[in-house]
Amino acid sequence: AFHVALEWAYFSLHTAQITALANGGLDWHGAIVGGVIGAAIVSRLRGVSFADFADTISVTFPIGVIAIWLACSVAAAGYGAEVRTLADFPAWLVTESPDVYGQIAPRLDLPKLGALIGGVLFVLMLALTAIRRVRQELRGLLFWIGLALFSFSMAIVDVFRGDFVASWFGHRAD
C-alpha cells in the first residue's frame, strides 16, 4: 500500500496492477509496518510481552536486511546512481550493473553497501542483546534502536540511489 501511495501517478493509470503482488513493489517502510503488526499479533497469540518479543527479533531483523539487499542485487532493484567511470571509486564501492530497463552502466554498488550495513547492524544488535542481559533498562528498546539505526542508514543510502521514486519537497519520498 505504501509503494502504491508513493507511485500513485503511475498506479492511478494502471489500477489493475495495484494488486499484482508478483510484480514487486514492496517498500521497506511498508515491510516494517507489516512486520511490526505481525509481531504484535504473534506476541499476543503466544502470550509474550511485545517488548520481549521485539527484543528477541531485533537480532534477526538485520539478517532480513542483508537478504533483501542481496535480493535487490539479483533483481536489479535498489541500484546506485551512475558514475562516470569505475576508476573514480574504490573497487568495493562500484560495479557495472543493470537498471530496471536492463541498461548496464557503472554504478555505486548500493546492494553490497546495504548488505554491509545489515552486517554492521547485526553485530551491533548482538552486542546490545548481550548488554541488555546485564542492564535491564534496555528492555523493550532493542528493536526500536535497531530500526532507528537502519532508518538513518537508509536515509543516507537513498541519496545515492539511481532508481526512480517520486519526490516530495525535493527529496526521495521513500
Please give the order of strands in the largest beta sheet: 1-2
Low-confidence residue ranges: none
- Percent helix: 40-55%
DSSP helix count?
A: 7
Q: How many strands, which pairing sense, and closed or not: the largest β-sheet? A: 2 strands, antiparallel
Number of strands: 4
Order of helices and strands: HHHHHEEHHEE
Query: Structural class, from helix and strand content?
Result: mainly alpha
Based on CA atoms alone, the radius of gyration comes out at: 18 Å
Q: What is the first-to-last residue Cα distance?
A: 13 Å
pLDDT averaged over residues: 85
Describe the fold and architecture.
It is built from seven helices and four strands. The protein has helices at residues 2-6, 8-11, 28-46, 50-57, 61-75, 110-134, 142-158; strands at residues 94-98, 104-108, 167-168, 171-172. The strands form two sheets. It has a two-stranded antiparallel ribbon with strand order 1-2. The model has no long low-confidence stretch (mean pLDDT 85). The two termini are 13 Å apart. Helix 6 packs antiparallel against helix 7 (142-158). By secondary structure, it is mainly α.
